[in-house]
């Protein structure tokens, strides 16, 4: 439930903002803004503004506000204009749930409007002439963009109705909330515990959904791997079948579907029936059994490793869920949930590019950072496989030299960005340098996104088959390689 106009008036009266100086601006989400002010009360106040539908509000918050991982546009704008400015006026315009702050920094006056309508909330900064300098939410349809005009002091149409058709009757009242303290303290506590987009209850439910779905998928995968492990443990039986077929090859009729023979690997030499392929000779049928034996023998170690990794992942997911559910600050919890990839098989809190992986483990292979781009190199089949399994996602780019064995190179995807040619050439140089084609000095690389790779059936560890690949011709560039070596991440 959003604040009504009477509650907004009560909050502004308690805040007593006129005369305060704005010291800091925080914006850790697209609908959350906080101003740190210092005023007549001789203490710092953090004024939270939330534009989330159903929870539009302004009030003092007494909870720590985590910093944003990356600077957001509107916060950077406010820092350049109103930080160190003095608030000369803080009023609500009638009963319209629009707050106007008059701020002066030096000789320059600004108007900061906070509109708390559930269906059209916004924060807008203009000059005295009403020309918009910037808006927290740029809404071209409403004219709320840089250069537009915003003068809510003279409402018309929708503005006169309070934005959401509010009826101007004296039916609104200030809620009688539980607990001690000022109305600001009660509102801060109420929204943290019960209501809106920052409700601890709703955030914890979201955490359970995100983690719980992945836990269920992982448990199902572990069950399937357990069945495969049991099958592979019995792989030696296929070798015994092959030996029995070879021992009885002379008496197998051409086109026979079954072989009935004594099982000399078991006590009592009991008769067993072994299914044969009709169009294969006895030697070929025995070869099929031997192949299944080798596949099972080699696959057992891989499956056991996958089970070990899956169990570790399950423990990590449970630890992540515990950490999320124990968090009591909704702002911090919302920030943690933003780092979780919905639908991911491993939705733990993501690592920061260039740092060690979750749990402090070193990333396999080599890692380089060219500007904001992270490039990873697997130097052998094991590192290639580990990077594929645990450190890349579908939109990351995979590169490999054509016609030669060598490293897999991965370029981590950046949201909303396309890897430029210079970064592709970095990846191509690394792929060629860490391959058996290095001595040629040049060569063709193919590249595609990880989601277009598929594992080779019954192939060696890490082997993949690409689709939708493109070609990149690379000539080894010593200066480029030297630059990359200087950016190498050393743990």
The stretches of 5 or more residues where confidence is low (pLDDT under 50) are 164-168, 343-360
How many structural domains can be distinguished in the coordinates?
Answer: 3
β-sheet strand percentage: 15-25%
Q: From the alpha-carbon coordinates, what is the Rg to the nearest angstrom? A: 33 Å
Q: Would you tell me the structural class of the helices and strands?
A: alpha+beta
Q: What's the end-to-end separation, in Å?
A: 49 Å
Mean pLDDT: 85
The succession of helices and strands, N to C, reads HEEEEHEEEEEHHHEEHHEEHEEHEEEEH
Helix content: 25-40%
Summary, kept brief:
With 491 residues, the chain is of the alpha+beta class. The protein folds into three domains: 5-196, ibrinogen binding protein from staphylococcus aureus domain (ibrinogen binding protein from staphylococcus aureus fold, Roll); 203-338, Orthogonal Bundle (Helix Hairpins), CATH 1.10.287; 358-486, no CATH class. It has helices spanning 5-15, 73-81, 183-193, 200-233, 236-247, 282-326, 330-338, 381-390, 421-433, 478-486, and strands at residues 21-29, 32-38, 44-50, 57-60, 86-92, 98-105, 108-115, 122-126, 132-135, 258-262, 271-275, 366-370, 373-378, 397-401, 408-411, 442-449, 453-455, 464-466, 470-475.
Topology:
Blueprint: H1 5-15, E1 21-29, E2 32-38, E3 44-50, E4 57-60, H2 73-81, E5 86-92, E6 98-105, E7 108-115, E8 122-126, E9 132-135, H3 183-193, H4 200-233, H5 236-247, E10 258-262, E11 271-275, H6 282-326, H7 330-338, E12 366-370, E13 373-378, H8 381-390, E14 397-401, E15 408-411, H9 421-433, E16 442-449, E17 453-455, E18 464-466, E19 470-475, H10 478-486
Antiparallel strand pairs: 1-2, 2-3, 3-4, 5-6, 6-7, 7-8, 8-9, 10-11, 12-13, 13-15, 14-15, 14-16, 16-19, 17-18
Helix pairs in contact: 4-6, 4-7, 5-6
């Amino acid at each position: 439930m959003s604040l009504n106009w009477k509650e907004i008036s009560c909050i502004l009266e308690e805040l007593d903002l006129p005369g305060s100086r704005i010291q800091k601006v925080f914006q850790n989400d697209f609908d959350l803004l906080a101003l740190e002010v210092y005023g007549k009360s001789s203490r710092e106040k953090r004024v939270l503004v939330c534009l989330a539908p159903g929870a539009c509000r302004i009030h003092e918050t007494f909870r720590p506000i985590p910093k944003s991982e990356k600077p957001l546009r509107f916060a950077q704008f406010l820092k350049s204009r109103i930080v160190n400015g003095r608030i000369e006026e803080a009023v609500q315009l009638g009963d319209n749930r629009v707050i106007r702050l008059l701020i002066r920094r030096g000789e320059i006056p600004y108007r900061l409007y906070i509109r708390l309508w559930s269906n059209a909330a916004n924060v807008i900064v203009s000059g005295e002439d009403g020309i918009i300098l910037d808006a927290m939410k740029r809404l071209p349809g409403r004219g709320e963009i840089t250069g537009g005009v915003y003068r809510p002091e003279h409402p018309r149409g929708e503005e006169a109705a309070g934005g959401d058709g509010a009826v101007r009757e004296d039916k609104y009242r200030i809620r009688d909330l539980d607990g001690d303290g000022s109305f600001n303290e009660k509102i801060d506590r109420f929204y943290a515990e019960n209501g809106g987009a920052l409700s601890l209850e709703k955030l914890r439910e979201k955490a359970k959904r995100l983690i719980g779905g992945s836990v269920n998928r992982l448990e199902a995968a572990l069950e399937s791997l357990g069945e495969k492990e049991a099958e592979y443990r019995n792989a030696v039986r296929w070798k015994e079948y092959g030996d029995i077929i070879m021992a009885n090859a002379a008496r197998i009729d051409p086109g026979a579907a079954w072989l009935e023979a004594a099982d000399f690997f078991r006590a009592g030499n009991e008769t067993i029936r072994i299914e044969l392929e009709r169009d294969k000779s006895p030697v070929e049928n025995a070869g099929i059994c031997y192949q299944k034996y080798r596949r099972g023998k080699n696959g057992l170690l891989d499956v056991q490793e996958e089970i070990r990794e899956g169990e570790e992942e399950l423990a990590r997911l449970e630890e992540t869920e515990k950490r999320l559910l124990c968090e009591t600050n909704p702002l911090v919890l919302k920030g943690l949930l933003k780092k979780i990839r919905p639908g991911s098989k491993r939705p733990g809190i993501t690592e920061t590019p260039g740092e060690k992986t979750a749990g402090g483990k070193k990333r396999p292979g080599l890692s380089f950072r060219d500007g904001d781009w992270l490039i990873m190199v697997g130097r052998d089949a094991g590192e290639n496989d580990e990077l594929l399994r645990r450190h890349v996602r579908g939109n990351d780019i995979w590169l490999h030299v054509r016609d030669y064995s060598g490293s897999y190179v991965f370029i981590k995807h950046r949201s909303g960005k396309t890897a430029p040619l210079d970064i592709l050439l970095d990846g191509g140089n690394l792929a060629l340098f860490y391959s058996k084609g290095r001595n040629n000095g040049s060569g063709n690389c193919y590249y595609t996104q990880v989601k277009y790779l598929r594992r080779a059936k019954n192939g060696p560890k890490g082997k993949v088959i690409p689709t939708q690949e493109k070609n990149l011709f690379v000539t080894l560039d010593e200066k480029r390689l030297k630059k990359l070596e200087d950016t190498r991440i050393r743990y």
